[in-house]
Amino acid sequence: MSERRGDSNMLDLANFGFFLVSVGITFVAVPDVVKRLADFFTDFTMVELSPNFLLPAPAGFHPQLYYAFFVFSLAFGLLHIPLLAGRFYFNDRLRKKASTLGSIIFQLGAAYACNLLLAQSVAWFGFIGLIIILGGVGLVVENLVVLVATRHRSMPIP
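Below the sequence we write its predicted structure tokens.
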């Protein structure tokens, strides 16, 4: 059991390494991402969605920052695929496998949502809605995998 826990800890460290690689790729793709992020947060204004209901939204379009988010989400999502394979190879706990699958769905979906925002196919609040939906879908998939797998213990789980 302790060897399995050690493998799981190493995979968790690999996950952190993949995060750092994704951040690095983002900085290579958009070298001034920090400035772009600062510009983004100073560009917010209150938008009235309905009478007396205001929410903050960027006043301008920030394609370089949206591209940076796209690059990060795509890289991190794709790097989770070998992590998931490692979790199966080392027979990691079901919860870890399911969580990694949920992360893949969220990150790749977020990359797609960023691409839609970049192409101006969705507005800011549509993008926020997509991110919220993707977070929910990732959680649902993660927990359904665990639920189905634990309900059907007689079936072998790789």
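The longest strand covers residues 44-50.
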